[in-house]
Design brief:
alpha+beta, 2 helices, 11 strands, about 45% strand
């Protein structure tokens, strides 16, 4: 094979490999972001750590991430709903509260949590995973902050 043809074949193979690598890294879509509400009030959710498709990203804890962001004021003891806009329901969901640098698991059932009753700013991280225990389809988390006045 002439040198020119050999180079063209190698260049074509390199381009095909680059396309496959870039397509694989994109994962095809972004991880779903949680929708968080207290009644009709939207609570802003911020993307946090995730592994979705072929992409993983690691973020700081919710309190560190959101210390300079405004918290959403909610009613003391209010029901707060958390859902993900994706057709498949997550196989696991957990909720962690961060207060003064300390993480604490928070009771979370049927997509709802109860806001604290003491005044202050509270930071949360909700984690959701889709899979069957042996094979994960992906996981994502979202951070949010609420304030009780």
């Amino acid at each position: 094979m002439p040198k020119r043809s050999y180079r063209m074949v190698l260049t074509a193979i390199a381009w095909v490999m680059l396309v496959f690598v870039l397509a694989g890294c994109s994962g095809g879509s972004e991880p779903p972001l949680a929708t968080i509400k207290e009644g009709k009030t939207d609570i802003k959710a911020y993307q946090s750590s995730y592994c979705w498709g072929n992409v993983c990203a690691d973020y700081a804890d919710a309190e560190t991430m959101l210390k300079d962001e405004p918290a959403t004021v909610v009613n003391s003891g209010a029901a707060i709903s958390i859902a993900f806009k994706i057709s498949a329901k997550p196989s696991t969901v957990s909720l962690t509260q961060f207060k003064d640098g300390r993480p604490t698991e928070v009771p979370f059932s049927k997509g709802k949590m109860t806001a604290p009753t003491e005044t202050g700013v509270y930071y949360y991280n909700v984690f959701a995973s889709w899979g069957n225990g042996k094979l994960t389809k992906g996981d994502t988390s979202a951070a949010f902050a609420i304030e009780i006045k």
